[in-house]
Amino acid sequence: MPQFPDAVSNQNMTNWFLGSFDTHIPWWFILVVIKAVAAFAILVVLTLFNIWYERRVVSFMQMRIGPNRVGPQGLLQSLADGVKLALKEDIVPTNADKPVFWIAPLLSAIPAFLAIAVIPWGPAVSIFGHWTTLQLVDLPVGVLYVLAISSIGIYGIVLAGWSSGSTYPLLGALRSSAQMISYEVAMGLSFAGVFLYAGTMSPSGIVNAQQHGWYFYMLPLSAIIYIIAMVGETNRAPFDLPEAEGELVGGFHTEYSSLKFALFFLAEYINLVTVSALAVTMFFGGWRAPVPISLWSGANSGWYPMLWFMIKLLIFVFVFIWLRGTLPRLRYDQFMAFGWKVLIPVSVLWLLVVALFRQLRNAGDLDRAHAVPIGIGIAAVFLLLVVALEVRERNQIRRTPPPTVPDYEPLAGGFPVPPMPGQSAPAVPRRPQFARTAAAPAPALNGTTAEEASTR
Amino acid sequence: MNPDSYLYLSAILFSLGALGVLIRRDAIVVFMCIELMLNAANLAFVTFSRMHGRLDGQIFAFFTMVVAAAEVVVGLAIIITVFRTRRSASVDDANLLKY
Amino acid sequence: MNVTTASVQFTGSAQSYLSPTGVEVAFILIGLVVLGSALLVVTVRNLVHAALWLVVCLGGIAGEYLLLGAELVAWVQILIYVGAIVVLLLFGLVLTRAPIGHTDELDVKHRAPAVVVAAGAAGVLVTVVVDAYRKVWLEPRAAVPLGTGAANGAALFKYWVLPFETLSVLLLAALVGAIVISRRGADGDSDEPESVGTD
After folding, report:
1. B7 to C129: CB separation less than 8 angstroms, yes or no
2. Would you say residue C87 lies in a domain?
3. Is some CB atom of chain C closer than 8 A to the CB atom of A92?
């Protein structure tokens, strides 16, 4: 524990604010309350900011302007939208299971807030003359805590879907629970590599262990897998299948309105911040300054680390927005196949490699001169494997004969139907627009003659 | 404090789970009651671990959780298959060996 | 002085802030929640509500683990039971079309004998426990370093490696088994015509 000489002098000047407190309240308690309120406030403000940020960045990418009327640069737009949302009528469907319908948004929003508690925002700083770390609690199993809490958030979605008593929300809820459970596996596996290197599950311990190099450089594959999994876990584009507008209207929150809907919205954006903060903590050095700045000796002390942390966090949020602006949504089966057949096997293999390296390093049988060729060899084998699998799959696709498609019947079963995949509609000759003669052949599709059509 | 109290809790929880298995109809709820009984056993294990100052009980609790997870996966697969053919998830309706 | 105590508490020497009586009070409160919610799991007619009460019950048990000093077990309990198993059960309930509202769930004929059996089991178990552990006494603070991740990991991989490996085989078997069971129309013995359309 380093000594802080100026702490004592600070303590002597009892300031006005703390003088008003009863002296029987222990100090750690006051600090915890201050930090909890600050964390809550930061999350809410960040949500308002991120909504604006997302709308502006997406607008920029789509060559639009985006909200720019309310407040400077439109910054207060989300606040105005929030007020509007709160004033809307709160509709509860007749078929709904009322108590569960009420609990679901809370179950989704509260865990989102709780998860941030173990994320370290900075090293020890002085608050009213008392030294404390910028972290609400430092659990020894902190990362496990985040995983556990974020898995509770699934309940909000499943219950919202079920309790609405309506089809689309139910389908959205089923999708999302399957999605989150599958991507949580890959997420946990990607953390295992970090645990092996850091030797601890406490977030502050992991940040301390990254003093001499971020884990992104040591465990690039883990970081990439985590980043993919976190997009799946937060239901964001391109993995936003639970709320695919084209297929499911709004997904699990179709029947929600007013403040309950706002809570789902809040939960989504807070989850965005939480998973980004976790990514920064686990793989990108946490609050540590990036390389050129870290040469300055004061970069990692005082309140500056919080600045670096926020910058990294906002870069991650930008990546989320960028993904949304760039990629189309995956189909559901593609998405599940990607999770189970690509992400999980790759992360298991990668974990094996990491564990092997770690063990060899610990046993002292491995020096740098050997490690590099072995690493390259493993990478080469891995790449070959991937390429071989891919080639095999392509060959299979080529070898399988194309399925025989029955001929297209425009009026199958008495109703006009569109062509199935593989079929093509016969070209209907375009009717001359002002043809008065009956010479034009009647189109087969709707079975009306030209005269009938022209009289309509 | 006396470790008895944890064991009482565990015993009563186990009996409640057993009661549930006996009186519920839906196969999935029967599953939930089995989970209750497993958890009661886990609580007893952790209490014993605490009493003897050894970790074996806690390790056993982990093992129980893994077995419970495996059990739920297979059990749900069976229930869903039964539901597909019988259109019901009630244990009373699963009364034939085939179809 | 004040400075050092505050920082010690925050750098987290894993000490329980609860006094012994505090532990006892917390135990009783959480225990009541656990028992109450377990009773509701068994008696509530709405299936999904039963699952929700199960979540409360399992969370309460995680709280009891924390009081027993088994920190890792507590969080794993939340992660696996609350986060995965009950979600899967809910998934199953929704897939098997759990109705909103009341069901004929509890209208079984043998309710009275079932209650008698359960009460008998409870009576026997409690008497056995009373008899066996009358004289044991625990110091609530002594257990705290016991349940950490490091200690659990060491015990697991020093003394329990073989069961651990066996369990991984079991998990694999369960995974394969679940896929085999739930595959539609395996080996063509299904009673449903298989190639109805290209769905």
Report:
1. yes
2. yes
3. no
The token pair at A408 is: 């297209």
Angle between helices B56-86 and C149-159 (to 10 degrees): 80
Q: What CATH number is attached to the domain comprising B22?
A: 1.10.287.3510
Strands A130-134 and A122-127: antiparallel
Length in residues, chain B = 99
Measured between beta carbons, the chain C residues lying within 8 angstroms of B47 are 68
Q: pLDDT tens digit string along A174-229?
A: 888 888 888 888 888 899 888 888 888 888 888 888 887 788 888 888 889 999 99
ipTM score here?
Answer: 0.86
Q: Is residue C85 part of a domain?
A: yes
Q: How many domains does chain B contain in total?
A: 1
Which of B62, B63, B85 is the best mutation test for C, with the most CBs of C within 10 A? B62
C61 close to C80: Cβ distance less than 8 angstroms: no
pLDDT (tens place) for every residue of chain B, 99 residues total: 667 788 888 888 998 888 888 888 778 888 889 999 999 999 988 888 888 777 888 888 889 998 988 888 888 888 888 887 777 777 777 666 655
Looking up residue C36, the CATH number of its domain turns out to be 1.20.120.1200
Query: What domain range is C78 assigned to?
Result: 18-100+130-144
Same domain, yes or no: C23 and C92: yes
Buried b (16+ CB within 10 A) or exposed e, C154-167: ebbeeebeebeeeb
Q: What is the pTM of this model?
A: 0.77
Q: Is residue C35 part of a domain?
A: yes
CA distance A13 to chain C (A): 14
> Which of C72, C77, C125 shows the shortest C-beta gap to B15?
C125
